[in-house]
Amino acid sequence: METHQPSLHEAVLRKLEFPEVIRQLAEACHFSVAAERALETGPSGEATQVEYLLSITDEAVELITNFPDLTIGGARDIREIVGRAVKGGRLQPPDLLLVLDTIQAARQLKRSFFRIPGVETRFPGLSDFAIHLAEQHNLETDIARSINARGDVLDTASAELGRIRREIRVQHSRLMDRLNSYLTSAKSGGALQDALITMRDGRYVIPVRSDARASIPGVVHDTSASGQTLFIEPLAIVELNNKWREAQLEEQHEIDRILDALSDDVALAGEALQLSVDAAAAIDLAMAKARLAFRMKATRPQLWKGVNRDRDGHLTHRIDLKKARHPLLDPETVVPTTIELGSGYRVLLITGPNTGGKTVALKTVGLLTLMAQAGLYIPADDGSIVSVFPAVFVDIGDEQSIAQNLSTFSGHMKTVVQMLRHVSSDSLVLLDELGAGTDPQEGSALARAIISSLLKTGPLVIGTTHYSEVKAFAYATPGVENASVEFDVKTLAPTYRLMIGVPGRSNALAIAKRLGMPRAILDEASGMVDPDEIRVDTLLQDIRKRKTEAEAAVEAARVERAEIERLRAEIEQERREAAAMRREARAEALAEAEVELGEIRDTLRRLQRDREMIGATRTHVEQRQQEVDRAAAIAKELKRKSAPPPPPPNQAPKRISVGDKVLIESLGEQGEVVQVIGDEADVQFGALKMRQPLSGLRRLGRARDERQEQVRVAVAPLPYVPMEIDIRGNRAAEIDGILESYLHEAYRGGLPMVRIIHGKGTGALRTVVRELLRTSPIVERQVSAPANEGGDGATLAYLRAN
Hints:
The protein is α/β, with parallel strands linked by helices. The termini are far apart. The protein is built from 23 helices and 23 strands. It has a 6-stranded mixed sheet, with helices on both faces. Strands 18-17-16-15-19 form a 5-stranded antiparallel sheet, covered by helices on one side.
């Protein structure tokens, strides 16, 4: 029997574990058809197609983020059901219920989706899918009217079915009445084995004792196991049974007709329903990609747009994965890997101990590239870049085959030979343990030759190796870069941290020493090591040390620069706050003066109005006017002093000295010179002091005495009291307090006279008012108001001079 040999493409997907990612994608689907499509998903080699697939995933991510309640609902896979209806088959009630569920789910999804504001602009790709969700109103209504949730055909399915079922109920009632008469009849009751009605062969019968067979003539349908009981259909009910059975058959015929009609309707809508299923599957698959992205904490990769050719004429591709994580490893323990390829070099060779993470790094690059080309987000930080490769070639794992008589080395070489025949500058090549499995010297030479060949062809290449000669070759060859996975000799464990630009080194002797290998054996082993290899390792170790030191220096510089930027931001913030406080203080002082001046002006205006009513003396008003003028003069002086100083006139600059007021031109801030040191000066502004070059300062003059007191306007406002008070509506008992308070305020306000309105009425309130005025020490005299000012309804009270 021939065995199926997977194609190269299938082998690449399998070696990079792409099918496992696709299986997780299928599990994230809520619709069985979408899950089926997910399992068929594969990477595309067309950049425009990959961009489209990623844009659909972008829309799905935004959709789930902003509208998490929008789901595919109760859609079902009805493709086979619809196909059967199209071929003329009769659909059964359960089939029609699945069709109904799908129609309802499609309608609800479509309406919910297109209710989103700006949906066609925000989700153009998903809108193209959603527009094909079928809304089969008539079919939905017909099925819902004909079949209930249990799958029973309802009486409302057709008028004829309703009539037939009413007839069945009538016939059944008559049949039961006649059978019950046998159970209750004295004549036939003694012949019955039991007083019950049962069925045999779809017809109602009664149990009769075999020895009383002649008592109830009829048709025997069955006997008991003992032969003592006969199940007889009495002759008197045979016709009733026949009519009941005929009605049942008529019912079944009508049900079949209804199902045929509904099946025909499904067939007519077959194409629309198939499109609806496809659209629902496409939407759910896109949302499954989004759900998988959330689960993996994945981000959208940027596609490399480079189409130029490098100096060797090869198309440029690039990979730049930032803190990439293998999606199938435990996210809590996996060590992120940062890998860059295609910018300064096209070949990256990773060295390091076994189980150190070399192969994981290799698979991570390949798997994340395939995921991106399938329209999936990748578990890496924002800003990660991948290219679209029409072909990916992989040689990972043990390729030995007993059936084909191939060793591990032969298996690898067979794969590499096939690869070299098809690889191009548009390819991605991943080689694990290049040249391994044979003589180290020959394997190393073969590995270098393969790398040289690939360099001429121009693909992006990532390989792993143990050979020191290959590491040295990478160090000396343009377009090739070393990398390594760290190994902690103290813990005898890899750190899984990938370091680009630093080749790995052998740790065998260090590990043996750490594990307690005798010193004599270690010394003898060291003497057997090729001196050239020791020199190479020493050189590479020196490179590693220098790179580590350089990275530490860069990090220290970065931290120091960040601290400087922080201090600069703090100083700038304090400068802004000080300037704001000065502006606020000036504004508050000016606002207080304006408020107080406004109050004085209001008082003056009231006095001028009152003068016309009471003939107040000119001296009284002029006195208030003078107070207003003095307050206005003070406010004007405050404004002048609060205004910023005018720019200095053009004149020969004077030498800057301690106590000068200067402008720091780089900051636009004014300050006072507190110390001059050579060609620099310390300038104090607010709570800050800065050292500035004299050339960056402009002298504004001598600083003002900081002890000067701020000018404030403190004019006591005159109390305002109206010239009259209306006490009508108050009880006589309340008048004393109200009137005494009013007269006191009028006296303090300097009013010569007031008018008290009490009304005429019975005169009781007037009597109380005039008695109080008569006894008041501040009232000189009282008279009734003139007729044109209220007459006896008001009293004028003249106050004593204060």
